[in-house]
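[recover] target loaded
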């Protein structure tokens, strides 16, 4: 199983970006998909998660600005980021708990995509 993230880049404050992360490989089911981020000199933090059949959860700092969504048919999670602030600058990682066709569970991470918010 692999997670491939894309969509990062440089954006001005107040701008928007949409991150995508597609899961591929021997997938039987997905328990949840989400996004974390790590800014320079800081610990990785959870940004948003979407459990299967559940409701999205967000860290307080992005509530009202970021929206997580999942396309189950494509095994893809998205993060729509609006009203971006310089403090959103970080490497963003997608994360998922996936059950393989061998019915074993694993926690998987994407390779990270850089988001830079700067004028």
């Amino acid at each position: 199983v692999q997670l491939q993230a894309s969509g990062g880049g440089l954006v001005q404050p107040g701008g928007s970006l949409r991150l995508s992360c597609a899961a591929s490989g021997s997938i039987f089911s997905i328990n949840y998909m989400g996004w974390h981020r790590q800014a320079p000199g800081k610990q990785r933090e959870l940004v948003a998660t979407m459990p299967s059949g559940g409701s999205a959860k967000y860290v307080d700092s992005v509530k009202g600005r970021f929206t997580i969504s999942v396309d189950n048919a494509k095994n893809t999670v998205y993060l729509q980021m609006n009203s971006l602030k310089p403090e959103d600058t970080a490497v963003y990682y997608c994360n998922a708990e996936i059950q393989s066709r061998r019915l074993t569970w694993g926690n998987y991470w994407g390779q990270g995509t850089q988001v830079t918010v700067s004028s």
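[recover] notes: The longest strand covers residues 27-38.
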